[in-house]
User: What shape does this take?
Amino acid sequence: MKSEPITKRAKHWWRRVEVWLLAGLFICSGGTLGYQLAMYNSHRLMQSELASIRAAYDEALGRKDRKLEMLVETTSEAAKTAATAAETASQAAEKAVSPD
Assistant: This one.
């Protein structure tokens, strides 16, 4: 090895360094690309889950609104019935009080 010129040995080692640098670059870029793909996939999954959660929430709000509307209708009917009963009771009280 002592008989080889130093430039030949330097070129040999530089080629080895270049190969290792390229290998490291490929590994780092592959890892980065894999990470980015994983993030994109998880973001897409979270968006679909969020859409289903929002749909379920909207459905629940719709059911709650329908229940409230039914409650308002029932309450207004009960109030009308109570008003009619109060009027009938008032008329009965007037008849009981009046001397005929």
Q: What stands out?
A: Residues 2 and 9 are 10 Å apart (CA to CA).
